[in-house]
Amino acid sequence: MKSYSLDKTEDLLIGKKGNQEREEYEFELKLELIGDMIKTARNKRQLTQEQLGELVGVKKAQISRLENSTGNVTLETLMRIFNALGAKLNMTLKM
């Protein structure tokens, strides 16, 4: 049985880095990770989605959509969420 690295498997199944399908996959993966980070930080601080929404100024439904990676988010809202959670957000912009 032949084994493959994760990078090689992604290249074979999704496409090489740089093609549109791979870029969309990478973007969706990052959104999933952000949602997981929000949920983990919220649970650590023992906050409900409703309580976090009140701290941020959004409805519970928006927090739920973000945690489940089913909604769009502005950078401003994302910064307010992480600020309310007492978490730092580090971003890298590549062009």
Describe the protein's architecture and organization:
With 95 residues, the chain is mostly helical. The protein has one domain (7-84): 434 Repressor (Amino-terminal Domain) (Orthogonal Bundle), CATH 1.10.260.40. It is built from five helices and no strands. The radius of gyration is 16 Å and the shape is elongated.
Number of helices: 5
Identify low-pLDDT runs.
Answer: none
Number of domains: 1
Distance N terminus to C terminus? 40 Å
Question: Could you give me the name of the CATH homologous superfamily?
Answer: lambda repressor-like DNA-binding domains
Taking all Cα atoms into account, the compactness measure Rg is 16 Å
Helices and strands, in N-to-C order? HHHHH
Overall 3D form: elongated
Strand content: under 5%
- Give the CATH topology: 434 Repressor (Amino-terminal Domain)
Count of beta strands: 0
Oligomer: single chain
Top CATH class: Mainly Alpha
Helix content: 55-70%
**CATH architecture heading:** Orthogonal Bundle
Secondary-structure class = mainly alpha
Largest sheet: none
